[in-house]
Amino acid sequence: MQRGTSVHSNLGASSHIVDLSIKRPVTILMGCLALIIFGLLAYFTLPVSLLPDIAVPVVSVQTIYGGASPQSIETQITKRIEDQIFSIGEIDSITSYSMDSVSMIIIRFKDGKDENLAVQEVKDKVDAIAADFPAGAGKPVVSKVDLASAMPVMEIIIEGDMSGTELYEYASTVVKDQLSQVTGVGNVELSVGEEREIRVELHSTSVFERFLPVEQIAGIIARANLEVPSGNLVFDNQDIPVRFKGEFSSIEEIEDIDIPTRAGVFKLRQLADVFDSQTHVREKTIFLDKEAGGRNENALLLRIAKNPTANSVSVVDGIIKLLPRIERNSGNRVRLNVIREDAGFVRNSVNDTLSNLVLGIVLTGLVLLFFLHDWRSTIIIAVSMPFSIISTFFVMQFMNISINVLSLMGLSCAVGTLVANSVVVLENIFRHKENGLPCVDAASKGTKEVIMAVIASTGTNVAVFLPLGSMKGPIGQILGDFAYAIVISTIFSIVVSFTVTPLLAARLIPAGEKKRIKNRP
Fold first, then answer.
1. What DSSP line would sit under 37-94, residue for residue?
2. What global pTM score does this model have?
3. 473-500 confidence digits (pLDDT tens)
4. N or C: which end of the chain has fewer CB within 10 A?
5. Which of 351-385 are b and which e, b meaning 16 or more Cβ less than 10 Å from the residue's Cβ?
6. What is the pLDDT of residues 20-51, one digit of tens each?
């Protein structure tokens, strides 16, 4: 009895929807129009990418200890960090690398762990022991391993009419900062260049004769090149902060530093040669332009990565729009050449998938017209396809599903299923019209009779693809957009078959002749 009551209640609710759609067409059409408008707005605001973003809970800890051997790195830094972070919950694995001057630890958490929380927990644990590291060790850098940021969406060659040192300084201070301000840019990486360097080369005779320790001279120079706060000055009821400006502004100031030795105090110029130079470059960027037949060794490479939630196409378009302004602001001394960008490939892939989706809708409509032989019936059934697909974008926006190849493939695969529900409903409405029922009664009765059959047949698709979208891990994140696109569009097809289809059938399809029933003897 309870099961029968439940079914009757569901049928009653569904029947009410059917009757409401037939008797109140304006209400239903306005609701459908609102879904289409919100779906179109969502389509133009959804991020566009080639594949779904994969969120992997992986955190890295990098520590620089210049000049230390791998054994020292292992015992003094790596092992201490491993013992400290081992107590963090939901850790799946810890992989460490102890190399010359560098300690690298990769912590992978179990699927479902919040990435930001994982980074904060690791940072808190590492900061608690950072003060116990050797004096020469740098501060550990804790960062999230982001696959989206690891792959640049754009690469730019910078060349200019200036020296290598000036070009590197301009690129690292001006160009890099301006590109970082573009909406959606996550990281801007500049290749190694001729960075300015002040070199102090000690005279070998002075070092040996006066027993000068090199570390002591380096410490004296470093302490002399500091700008530190020096308290406050109270004057006329005003509290004025005071700072000692000790940073060097010229080579002469460095040469005038006093160096105490056993033989007395000497100026640095008496013990060493100080000159303006640049760092030794071990990696070099060479720009070969095959079209123009040019070769430029005074060039730098910029790699630009986007934020995980950013739109690849929008990021690339924003950077390309900014490049001419950067060149003008430099007095046309700097030229920026885009050698690779993912926007074109992503745009072409998405447009190709969209064209296949539109082609599938058109071919499905032609097949319906071929078998139904009635343009009115074809239009009624074909309405379910664009309505279900466009409304799906509205739900995708709330579920943070981007427009990518897999989500569009899911919509393409669901095209055939979208019309199946309306075909079943429309055929049953035809049967009642041929039996002589009025248009409104035939639409209402014909739809109500197949409600449970349509829900049961469509529910099988939902039951198959919903668990696929709920899979954990990177594979589940990739296939989730595909599965959810099918599930959402399929549910909207049910809504169309119970509302729009009987509404249009009651008004567009003329009533057929009543069949003659012959009584058998």
1. HHHHHHHHHS-B-SS------EEEEEEEBTT--HHHHIIIIIHHHHHHHTTSTTEEEE
2. 0.64
3. 777 778 888 889 899 988 888 888 888 8
4. C
5. eebeeebeebbeebbeebbeebeeeebbebbbbbb
6. 888 888 888 888 889 889 988 988 888 777 77
